[in-house]
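Section 3.1: Structural characterization of target chains.
Under the original work plan, the team committed to producing a structural model for every single-chain target entering the pipeline before any wet-lab resources were allocated. The record below documents one such target. The sequence was received from the expression subgroup and is listed exactly as submitted; it comprises 134 residues.
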Amino acid sequence: MTGKELITWFKSLPDYPKYAKAIGEYIDQLGYAGPENSKVLSYIIPETLYGICCNLAFYQHDAKYEIGGTKKDRFDADVAMLGTALFIIENTPNRWYIWGGNGIRRRLAERRLLKYYNAVRWGGKSSFNFRDDK
């Protein structure tokens, strides 16, 4: 899928209106990786994983954190980021024409994504909007 096709797919998700209401419409030019409360971390954490843009997954994660909820909702937000990014990684067109290069790039991107996932599980608690009204 091309970048535009991925955006169209993402905006067709049933929860996208909730995301847009929480943090605004997805803007491709904005970087959603990294914590908003740390400009330094946001600057050094890229939206791409070995050239594969996973910005949509980070937008989704930010929106779900803004919507907030319980500890289970936080876990669901982190897993949604992981699942969406894995979908993007697997559906991004090949761009390397060396035998095995695209597969290696995808595996390296998955590895980096797991590091991002572990980082938000470990350090994201302070950014999540916990609510007991559910």
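The CA atoms of residues 63 and 113 lie 18 Å apart.
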